[in-house]
Each structure stands twice: as C-alpha cells, then as structure tokens.
Design a protein that fits this description.
Blueprint (H helix, E strand, L loop, with lengths): L1 H19 L11 E6 L6 H6 L5 E7 L3 E3 L4 H5 L5 H4 E3 H4 L6 E5 L1 E6 L4 E5 L8 E4 L2 E4 L3 E4 L16 H20 L3 H7 L1 E5 L3 H17 L13 E5 L11 H14 L1 E4 L3 E6 L2 E6 L2 E6 L2 E4 L2 E4 L1 H10 L9 E2 L5 E2 L2 E6 L4 E2 L7 H19 L15 E6 L2 E6 L2 E4 H15 L3 H17 L20 H7 L9 H4 L5
Parallel strand pairs: 1-2, 1-9, 2-5, 9-21, 11-12, 11-17, 12-13, 19-22
Antiparallel strand pairs: 3-4, 6-7, 7-8, 10-18, 14-15, 15-16, 20-21, 23-24, 24-25
Helix pairs in contact: 1-11, 6-7
Bound molecules: flavin-adenine dinucleotide.
Flavin-adenine dinucleotide (FAD) binds next to β2, β6, α8 and α11.
C-alpha cells in the first residue's frame, strides 16, 4: 500500500507538471499546432495539459461530450442521468482560450502533408483538413461481435450514451411487455434478460438489473412480481471478473448468486435472434428463451488504428489495435502519438487509467520538445489497481497485494469514481443520486422512449444503417438517405 501511495503521488505530480512548463510565446500564427483526435480518457487529459500554454490545440471529436463509460450501466438501470456521465467538451475546456473544439468525424490521415482528414455529416460530404505539427490520436474502441455482426440487431452493446439509453429502453420495456401479455410462456420470455460477457460491464449490469427488479420495481406491476425476472449472465470463460484473479472472482460469483443472477460459465454464444440465445456448453447445446439480450463481450479498436497502421507500416493485433513504440509514437513519425484503447503496448489493459497516463505522457513529450529537449522517454504505466461493483454495498477491489470485498471495496469504488467524474457540482449531484439509491432504494431515471433511442449506437455499420436515423448534421437530404448495407 505505501508503494501504491507513492505511485498515486507520482501520477498527481505528472498531472501538475503542465503548470510548471514555461514557454516563450512565438506569437499568433507561429504557435505549435497540436491536433488531438478524441475527447475521451486518452484525448482530454492531453488537451487540458496544454490549456493556457502558447500552443494552438484543436480537439476533434464526433461527439460533443466526454463520456465516463464506467458508469454507463447506471444510466441503463435508472440511477444516473445522461448528463451525469457525459459533459460537453466545450464546457470542460471553456477556460482555455487556446483550445478549439471541432465536432467532426475523422476519416484518415495524410502524414506526409501533416493533416488530419475529417468530415461533418454524411461520409460523402466535403473533406475537411486539420493541419498539425504534433498529433495525438485517441479514438478508443467499439464493440466487437467476434465476426457475428448480425447479433447486434438483437443484442446492443454498451459503449455510448445512446447504447445506455437503448439498453434502458429494452430492459424497462421488457417489464412493460410482460405486464401486457396473456400467455405465461411469453411473459417468461419477456422476464428473462440475458447479459453476454462476465467482465466488469456485464457483472455490474447483471447485478443492477436484479436490484432494479427486486428493490426499485417491487409492487409496481399487477400481473407478476418483478423479482421473478431471470437475469442470465453468460461467458465463455470459467468465472466472472476473471481478470481480478480466482479469489475475487469467486467472491463476485457468490455475490451474484446471492442476488439471484444465474451464471452460465464455459458457454459460447452461437446464435442470437429475436426470441433467444443459442449456446454451446462443452458437448451440449442449449437455448435460453429471451427477448432482451445485452452484449458486453468484446472490443474492437477504432478503424482509425488501421488507418494509422496503413500510413506508418505498423502492425495491428486481432482486436485491430495499433502496436505503438515504447514512447507511444509511431515508427518514422516522432510527432504522431497514439494512446488509449486503440493501441497495444506491453499487454497493458484497455482501461481508463492507461489511456489517461498515456495521454499525459504524449503531451509532456511534446511540451519538453518545445522547450528544446528532444530526449525520448518510454511510457511507464503505474497500475493504481482495479475495482468493480456488483450491487449495493457489494464490490471487489484489487490494489497491489491488497484484495478487498464488500463495504471496504465499495467505499474505494465510490471514492475513485467521484474523483474521476468531471465537475464539482456533477460530483455532488451524483453522490446525491447514490445516497438515494443506497439508502432510499430509489431510481429516478426510468423514462424511456418506445422507439430506437438514437443514431450513436455502437453496433456494426451494416446494422446501424438498418436502424439509425440520419446522422447529424444533415447536409442535404439526398446524401443523407441511409446507404444500402
Ligand atoms: C461500459 C464500460 C465500462 C468501463 N468501465 C471501466 C472501469 O470501471 N474502469 C476503467 O478503468 N475502465 C473502464 N472502461 C474502459 C475505459 O472507459 C476505456 O479504457 C477508456 O475510455 C479509453 O479511453 P480512450 O480515450 O482510448 O477511448 P474513449 O474514452 O472511448 O474515447 C474515444 C473518443 O474518440 C472519439 N472518436 C472515435 N472515433 C472518432 C472519429 N473517427 N472521429 C472523431 N472522434 C472519434 C469518440 O467519440 C470518443 O470521444 C469501461 C469501458 C466501457 C465501455
């Protein structure tokens, strides 16, 4: 634990370093241009780092907000609102006049000419170019269906705000449908909710759906008891939260079972349709009948990783992540950095802290160079530990050699998440919601629409074209018509 405190101090010291950089201002028009692609955990810290420095920063994102993905499951299950887990990038960076925000979709890079290529609106619209002197790409990762994109029609993933709202719609909608049907078999199918993938997202979501049903919805329906809902958590591995190690995994399994989540481990999904999920469990096959399935299983790097690989001759791995150099630059392009979930280096995990530390490493390297120090430093990740919640007062936490469960782990979870949320008033409001959830058992965010929620679902493009409305902004009606898949 003392070692961990030391690591924490180092990380905080790094984050304060920005204020110590003193640079001469070469004057408007001559300032170094830094383009940052992505305003997530990998892009935002670097942008903030340069705030107030004599550097021109352009932060490009296809969304207007920074999203706190770790709490998306709380939006889906009615605890938090969208605004509590997402904050407009303009608002977050409003005090830094040297940072411009651009709402645009980056499509590629011309590294010889040192420009980022992007467009606003549909893919056919005019290409915009953003020239740079230094570039940081942090475009993250999307959902992977392991070659079965067709599953996405029935099983949305959990990556974006619209995903979270879509899952809220489907989960709460399932209870409404169960109330209205006459057949008991059909009611049972509506009252079965399947979550595929027993990593932190799947575990947190499955636990919260059970608590939603057993605690928050109790007594609200007339034709069934909400606590009769079956929540089935499926994974091809042998235990939930496998990355936490056997001890904590076993604890998580026990806690989930106590909450009434059914675990189906060592089970591979072979098909998903409107009425259920087919599984291969060793030599046997099984079918779980359910109208509501959530996919929390695989990740696939942003296609921009492949674009960068093409431009630099780098490798991408099976998840499409680009292999960066030890200092997070790309071979032959010392001024181009890639960080976060779209990259691979030394088997580092795809978690927020890796993206944030990588982001600051890239920004600090650029700042050092601007002060005339061209030395290259390898990126050194300081692992601050992992924590996941299972339900109210139930969590697991792994920090160095320390393993915590129950209330102590839960307390660490609250502290960590409040620290990393954006904005003091937002932290306070979120704490209020958590107290309401923990003590009064209330979930105020239960509204949903009966139609698909929006166009920012993290489903594969062929599925998105089938279900999404036109992208924003619509440039001209003909261009914006959905493309045939
Ligand atoms: C549901 C869920 C729960 C998680 N829980 C945890 C947790 O508990 N703890 C933890 O440490 N980590 C957790 N993670 C992982 C963590 O969120 C990621 O590791 C982190 O977000 C990675 O940061 P990033 O900047 O690489 O990507 P992101 O944060 O995803 O940011 C990528 C940004 O790039 C933008 N972008 C993408 N493509 C383009 C484009 N072509 N043009 C313009 N902009 C683009 C996106 O809009 C986005 O804003 C979780 C992830 C998910 C999905």
């Amino acid at each position: 634990m003392p070692g961990q405190m030391q690591l924490m101090r180092e990380v905080i010291a790094d984050r304060r370093m920005a204020r110590r950089h003193q640079m001469d201002d070469p004057g408007e028009g001559n300032r170094h241009r830094v383009v940052v692609v992505g305003g997530g955990f990998g892009g935002l810290p670097a942008s903030r780092f340069f705030g107030g420095m004599p550097v021109e920063v352009t932060l490009i994102d296809r969304r207007n907000h920074h999203l706190f993905q770790p709490l998306l499951y709380q939006v889906s299950t009615g605890i938090l609102s969208q605004g509590q887990v997402a904050m407009p990038l303009r608002h977050v960076l409003r005090k830094h006049k040297n940072i411009k925000i651009e709402l645009a979709e980056v499509t590629g890079f011309d590294l010889d000419r040192k420009v980022v290529l992007a467009h606003r609106g549909p893919a056919e619209s005019e290409t915009i170019e953003f020239p740079f002197d230094s570039l940081i790409v942090a475009a993250g990762a999307g959902q992977s269906y392991f070659g079965h994109d067709e599953f996405a029609l029935y099983a949305p993933g959990m990556k974006t705000l619209d995903d979270a709202m879509e899952i809220r719609r489907r989960v709460l909608g399932a209870f409404e449908m169960a109330e209205g049907v006459a057949s008991e078999a059909e009611r049972a199918t509506w009252l079965t909710i399947v979550v595929v993938g027993a990593g932190p997202t799947g575990v947190e979501l499955a636990g919260q759906i059970r608590e939603l049903a057993t605690i928050s919805l109790a007594g609200e329906f007339r034709n069934f008891e909400p606590e009769s809902v079956r929540v089935v958590l499926i994974d091809a591995g042998k235990e939930p939260l496998a990355t936490f190690g056997d001890n904590l995994s076993g604890h998580a399994q026990h806690a989930l079972e106590q909450m009434g989540v059914e675990l189906m481990m060592n089970a591979r999904v072979t098909n998903i349709d409107a009425d259920g999920v087919d599984l291969q469990c060793g030599d046997t096959t099984e079918r779980v009948r359910a109208h509501t399935v959530v996919w929390a299983a695989g990740v696939e790097a942003s296609p921009l990783a492949a674009e960068l690989a093409k431009a630099t001759g780098c490798e991408v791995d099976r998840a499409g992540r680009i292999a960066v150099q030890p200092d997070l630059t790309l071979p032959g392009h010392p001024d181009v950095f890639a960080v976060g979930d779209m990259t691979t280096l030394n088997n580092l995990p795809g978690v927020a802290e890796v993206a944030m530390q990588g982001s600051l490493h890239a920004a600090a390297t650029i700042a050092r160079r601007l002060q005339g120090d061209d030395s290259s430093h390898d990126f050194r990740y300081r692992d601050l530990g992992s924590v996941a919640t299972i339900g109210r007062w139930r969590a697991v936490c792994s920090v160095a050699d320390l393993r915590l469960t129950g209330l102590p782990a839960w307390t660490v979870w609250i502290f960590v998440h409040l620290t990393f949320l954006n904005g003091y008033s937002n932290r306070l409001a979120t704490l209020g919601r958590w107290l309401r959830w923990m003590l009064a058992k209330g979930r105020p965010e239960r509204v949903f629409s009966v139609r698909h929620t929006g166009g920012d679902l993290s489903v594969p493009i062929v599925v998105l074209n089938e279900i999404e409305p036109n992208p924003f902004p619509v440039v001209n009606a003909e261009q914006a018509a959905p493309k045939p898949s």
